[in-house]
Every structure is written in C-alpha cells, then in structure tokens.
Amino acid sequence: MSQSVVKNSEADAPPPPNPPSGGGLKGHPWLTLLTVAVGVMMVALDGTIVAIANPVIQEKLHAAPAEIQWVTSGYLLALAVFLVTAGKIGDRFGHKATFLVGAVGFAVTSAAIGFAGNIQTVIAFRVLQGLFGALLQPAALGLLRGAFPAERLNMAIGIWGGVIGASTAAGPIVGGLLVEHVNWESVFFINVPVGLIALALGLWILRDVRAEKAAKSFDLPGIALLSVGMFALVFGIIKAPEWGWGDGRTLLFLGGAVVLMVLFALWQGKAREPLVPLGLFRSVPLSAGVLLMALMAFAFFGAIFFVTFYLQNVHGMKPVDAGVHLLPMTGMMIVGSPLAGLAIGKLGPRIPIVAGMLITTVAMYGMSTLDTGSGNGVMSLWFVLMGLGISPVMVGATEVIVGNAPLELSGVAGGLQQAAMQVGGSLGTAVLGALMAAKVGDVLPGNWAEAGLPPVEGAAGEGLKQAAQLGIAPPAPAGTPQQAVDAMAGAVHESFVSGMSLAFAVASVVALAAAALGLLTRRGTTDAGPSVHI
How far is CA 118 from the centre of its chain? Predict the structure, then answer.
C-alpha cells in the first residue's frame, strides 16, 4: 500500500486552524452543527413519516402490496449501496459542496414524489431520494469532523444524534396529522422548506475543510465492485423473507455478494488510490466500531420493527397514538444523546458503549416478556430503557469510527458508519422477521384450536398465517357471534406476541454480543493532519 492511513498516536486530534479574520460566522463549529443537523433532520424525518403514509399511498394510487413495499425498500437500497461512494465524493470534492447537492436533491425529489401520479413514478423518485440522502449523511459527519477538535467532537455528535432522535420521534406524529388532515403528498412536500433552509444556512455558514492528502482520483473499479456487491447483499436480504432463505435466488444474491466483496477487498490492496484503504481497518477500535454499529442496528431496528404492529394491531391504536406511545423511547434518545456525548468526552467511549448495550440487552429481554394485555406502564419502562441504552452506543460508535479515521478519509468513515447501520438494520429486520414468521406458523394452529375455532385450510389458511404475522385478525363473516370474533382476534394476537417475544429474545442475545465488542473501542486517536479552508 502506498501510504499508511491510520496513525496510532494516543494524542487527540488538534483543533482545526482558526478561520481567517473577517470571516464572520462562516465555519463557526456550533453553527456548522446547526446547519448539518437541519439537513440530516430531513432524512431522519423522512425515514418514519413515510411509513405512516404508505397505506394511504397504496389506496390512492391503487398500488399492489409488492409495489408499496418498494416505496421503502427502493429508498433503503439506494441509500445503502451509495453511502461509502458518497463519502468518497465528499472527501474528493469537499463535504460542503456534497452536503449542499444532497440537501437540494433530497428536497427536489421529495417535491417530485408529491406531484407523482402513479406508484411507478413514486418508486423511481424514492430511489433518487435515497441517492441524495446518501450524499447528505457522510458529508454531515465529515463537516463535523473538520469543524470540531477531538475533545468536542463527542458532544457535537451527541447533539447531532439528539436531532436525529427528535426527527425520528416526530415522524409518526407529524405524518399521522398530515395524512389525516391534509393529504399523503404533504408528507413529502414538507421536505421542501427544510431543504431550502439547509441550503441557505449551508451557503452562509459552512466552510469547506479538506485534507491536503485527500485523494485526487476515483477508484472506479472499486466503486463498481462495492456498489454491485452491496446491491446484491441488501437486495438478497430484502427478498429473502418472500423467496425463502434456502431459495436458489436468495443464495445466488447473497453468495454473489460474498464473491464481489472478496474481489473488492483484493482490488483495494492493489489500487493506487483505493476507495476504502484496507489500512483503515488496522485500527482495531475503528473495525470494532463498524461491527458494533451493525450489531446494534440488527438488534434495535430489527426488533423495533414489530413494535408498531404490536401497538396498532394488538392494542388497536391509531398511528398517531402509537407514535405518542413511542415517545418515552425517542424522548430518551433526544435527551440521552447529548448527555452521552458529555459522558464519552469525560470517560471515553468504552464504558458508555458497554453500559448502553447492557441496558439495551435488559430492555430487549423485557420487551420479550410483553403479552397481549401489557399496560402502558410496563411498555413505557422498557421503551425508556431502550432509548437510554441506545443513545451512548449511537454516539460512541459514530465517534469511534469517524474519530479513528484520518481527516482525508472522514467521508469514507462516515459512509462506513451509515452503511453498517443500514446493512445491520436490513439484516435484522429480515432475519428476526423470518424467525417470527416461523414461530407464528408453529403456534397459530394450536392457539386457533384452543379457542374452539374450526381449522382453516388451503389458501385461506395461508392468508390467515400471513395476517397473523402482522397481528391482524381476519375479518369475520357477517352474522358471526361476537364471542367467535373475539376468539379469532385472541388467537391471532397471542400468536403474534409469541413471535415478537422470540424476536426480542434473539435481539437481546445480539445486544449482549455487541456489549462485549464494545470493550475493544476507544476514543479517536488519529491526527487531523494538514488541511485547507475554502
């Protein structure tokens, strides 16, 4: 390899040079944080607000179930495939320009989705929206890495995480209100003014900071291998629940992803200016941080996916009410992220990360004990612990990954952090979903029979099983006694909760493994190196 990309010095990175005199507010660290938070808020809000609109989009645009799935899957797929390359674009051309293009593109594609007249157009622009979202997130971390000295980076990332938590929490509530009182298009139009604010602040506040050692060319073969490999991996994960994990198509995509990733790694060792220099992973803390982020996302996003179905279909809540009931968790993430930044600044990331994952393990196990009659108090307890535990992990792992990378690779490091979270979340949702589906299929016939209901065979039985995996009780024929209606709902809900309990139990084991991995982390130790200000 032509140069070492990681310096194993124990000294904290020095603060970046002061902005030139007369520069006004341009380059101010805390205003830089405000600016990138506005842009990333748009992406975080979009992640949950669209889920609320999907049922209405399906109805209004007459979309098939498979089509409405791709409103979400197309976005996530584009995001995951492009994140590392987007980080490299920021390292090469500057994170300010990359951030501004991402913010404008995200707002424009959001408007285009709102004006779309059919589901195919919606899906196409959701894919483009994912590409622009991928530009935004690593660029935001790169700008923070360049604006803050190492001793303040933890706090900055903590506040940044709090903004993401607040936006995520607001999504279901804002989305529910907009869908109910305006229309589904408004959940996309809301991104337009936010994008314009991010653009205005970016032009006024952001000062591009680039390392003098930043790459001067692109590793096109590496980009192609990584992009196709990531596509095969994430697409295979998304389709596995539908095709089956042992299906030839699933094995083809996942096996192809492994082959492409191996070829990518081999090429990175030979390329003159590689996309992801392998020397980056000589840093044990950085490597541990990437894997930790993937395991955390596997456990958290994979298991929490079922909570909305539990609240809405088992407890009969409306989407807005379900969002309100999740506020104890998201509220703790809003408060806990800045506090985690302070704690990590004083103690280093290791203790807060390990403690956070242990708390998350307890919360996951507690969620596995919920039943159909669990009250708001016990649910809120586990939600509070979940938010409290996840906060230091999100902040700490991000700081470990970005802080242990040199400045000229801060965008790539940000892309790795986001890609690990996307792949981990997708894998968790698919794997835990498959385990849950198998559990529901096993216990549903017994619960159905115990309720004194006649067996359901053939296509109707398969439809009942699929509905039960979402906690949806089948519609009863006209004239069915209320006692029988209640018995059907009870059998379905009991089966759903059994599957959810298994998913959370497995997630708690993964969280415990992540806690052990957290012992390998430490604060960033790389020198920021020479930089130029634009």
Answer: 27
